[in-house]
Every structure is written in C-alpha cells, then in structure tokens.
Amino acid sequence: MNPFTEATGRIVLGGAGWSRQLITDPSSKPVLQTILHALSLGIRAFDTSPYYDPSEILLGAAFSSPEITTRYARSDLLLMTKCGRITATSFDYSPATIRASVLRSLIRFSTSYLDVVFAHDVEFVTRDECVAAVRTLFEMKDEGIIRHVGISGYPPAVLADRATYIRESLGRCVDAVQSYCHMNVQNTALKTVLPKLYGDAGVGVVLNASPLCMGLLRSGGVPIGELGDFHPAPRGLREAAAKAAEYVEGHGGNMASLALRYAVGEFARADKKGGGITILGGGSIEEIEENVATVKKVLKRGDGEGDGDLRGYTVLDEDAWRADEGLFNGVREILGEWLDYSWESPDAAFFDAKKREAVLN
Length: 361
Known about the structure:
Blueprint: H1 5-8, E1 11-14, H2 31-40, E2 45-47, H3 55-64, H4 66-69, E3 78-83, H5 95-109, E4 114-119, H6 127-142, E5 146-153, H7 156-170, E6 176-180, H8 190-198, E7 205-209, H9 235-250, H10 255-270, E8 277-280, H11 285-298, E9 299-301, E10 313-316, H12 318-335, H13 348-360
Parallel strand pairs: 1-2, 1-8, 2-3, 3-4, 4-5, 5-6, 6-7, 7-8
Antiparallel strand pairs: 9-10
GO molecular function: D-arabinose 1-dehydrogenase [NAD(P)+] activity
InterPro entries: AKR (IPR020471), NAD(P)_OxRdtase_dom_sf (IPR036812), NADP_OxRdtase_dom (IPR023210)
GO biological process, one term: dehydro-D-arabinono-1,4-lactone biosynthetic process
C-alpha cells in the first residue's frame, strides 16, 4: 500500500533544515510560520527525526499549535519521524529504547499516532538488530500507535537487503523505505534497487531524500551549521560539483533548481509503482516557495488544470524535461568520474570510535 500519493502527491517536506548539522541556532527560525506557509501551498507530509536536533522538538511544537490544529485535521497530515539513531556515532535499536523514542515523539507532536516511523540509518547496525527494532515498530503498529513502519539509510543496496531480510524473518513487509543522496543528478543508484525493494522486499513506497545531495549540488558549497563541515563528500567531488554549478550559471540557470528538477523528474520516471516521492528541504518560507515553484516546473497536474495545490502535481511534464535535458547532460559530463560515486557509510571513523568505546568499556 502506498500511504502517500493520494494524500500528498509526490512531495514531502523534510525537517533536517532545522537541525544543528545544517544551520546555526535552529530555534531562532520562524518554524510555525514556515510550516503554515508550506501547508498553504499544499504540502501535507513532513519528515523529521530526534537525531536532527532540535528539529523534532520544533516541528512538534508547531504542529501542536492552535494555529495549525484549528485549521487542519490530524487526518489531513502525514507526520513521519525516526528512531534508533542517537548521535553521529551512537545507536540504540533495543526494543525498550525504540518504544521509548516513539512514545516521546507522540508527546512532542501532541498526537495519539504517527503516520510513519523509520528505523534510522539501518546500515550502522546488524541485520538482527534491525529486525528487533522493526519487530517493535510492528507491535506498535498493531497497537494503533504507528500507521506505517519504515527503514531509512544511505546505501540503497543495504536498504534492499535489510528490507528483504525483515520480510524473511518476520513474515511482514516494511511499508516504506527512505534513502538519501541516491536519486539526483550526481547519483541515481536508488533506481537499481527499486525492483528488489518492490519485489523481494514487498515495500509499499520508496522515498528519496536529499535531492541536492545534502547541499552539495548548489552554488556556494555545502551548508555549514553549528557542527561544522560534516559533509562526507571528498574534495574531488566537491570541486566537480562547483564546476557544474558554474556551468549551469553560465547558461543562465541555477544549480539548485536544476538539480531539484532532475531529482523529482528522474524519480517520477523511474518509480512507476510507489509514485516517486521526493523529500524536499526547506527551512524558510523563501526556500519552500522556491522549491515548490521548481517542482511545478517539472511536474504538471494530473487533472490537466493549471496552477494550484501542490498535491495535484503528480505527472512528469515531458516537454519541460526535454527542455532541461541539455543542461542535465552537461552537468553529468562535468561530474564525470564522480557519477554514481557513494561515500562509505559507516566510514572508518565510525568503526574507530566503536573500537575506542569497546576499550573504555
């Protein structure tokens, strides 16, 4: 079952834009006003995580506000969060901690249920740890606390493996899988595992997050927040992305806009079963305005009508896609050897930290 397309179209708003990884002092941002504006444009699905500190707290406060609760029914919204990842190097997938995390999220959002809860970044734990966490989430689904259960992470092949193993181990399929940085103009590896996710694993819907590769595919370089430069892209990829941005600007375009059009359009072309759901960034009214306008340049309304609610924009505009094809090809040519490059996740630093932790304990 696809829990998204009918209610939300192809777009979800991500909450990482209110995290300390990406910006300085997220609590100073007008989160409520930004969410209200997103809702006015037709965005109805929102994704966050306790790990994106303090995003879940800020979003929870916004969605608990009478300014939202008096205008929108809870059933009009899709609220998604995650569990299991504590810090950059700390994970706890134990059943007790998973349950406690979900219950805390319910309190933060002042709701009796969550639409989707993902086990966060499953590549950092063993297959059996992942199964144990998902088993707990399935139990909470049976209790009516969660509507849909998902897993998230970086490497598409690992996500496909974990989702298949969950089905084999528990006899149940996860409803949703969320990947990031693997469906964009630099890397389209997510396409290669869609048959396994929808086939062997029986997944209901696949979501693509970070269509700008965590800010790499834009002018000006990666975003720097309170935690410094956390982006794992190596120097060569960063330099190639900067050259690609200069190329796009030289042709009168904007790299971030072009990259978003590619990500949304290519996923719509590739994912015929789940709908091709993209999680957009947007930590400000201006950014959301720009991103929604960009989506409307590559998608068109399924009912054939003109402008309007973003939820109606579900069909790829083939003419718009062909108009961009020359720039798409030019960018990918510049990226060259870095096409479909993926960094290691977990990386060597994670394993070094785990070794030090083991010695201390």
